[in-house]
Design goal:
A hairpin with a 5-residue loop joins strand 1 and strand 2 (about 25-30). This protein is an alpha+beta fold. The chain contains 2 helices and 4 strands; from the N terminus they run βββαβα. It has a domain at about 15-30 and about 50-99. The chain has helices spanning about 60-65, 85-99, and strands spanning about 15-20, 25-30, 40-45, 70-75.
């Protein structure tokens, strides 16, 4: 077994484009429930809205998916190229779309 592979990477991953201006990218981890509801987590990777990406936050997202949640990890716009509150607005748009 590869020592760098996450033990939780077995969760199915799908990348989706959320309509909007600009379009947002969500990476959804987890499996469709069979006969029961599962918690949904909207995950913001670390980096204080200045750095990071979907890959830098993948470990935590995989842990949450491995614990049974469906995780939607958001690639939000980063500062300084995108001013406050664009990242928060992107998160709210993703939340509305997921709902």
């Amino acid at each position: 077994m590869d020592s760098t592979a996450s033990p939780f990477a077995a969760a199915a991953a799908q990348t989706l484009s959320v309509p909007g201006q600009p379009p947002l990218t969500l990476r959804v981890l987890g499996r469709k429930p069979r006969g029961g509801a599962r918690p949904l987590v909207l995950h913001f990777h670390g980096g204080a809205f200045v750095s990071g990406d979907l890959d830098s936050g993948a470990c935590l997202a995989e842990l949450l998916a491995g614990a049974g949640a469906v995780v939607a990890s958001l690639a939000y716009p980063l500062a300084p190229a995108h001013r406050f509150p664009e990242a928060l607005e992107a998160g709210y748009a993703a939340l509305e779309w997921l709902h």
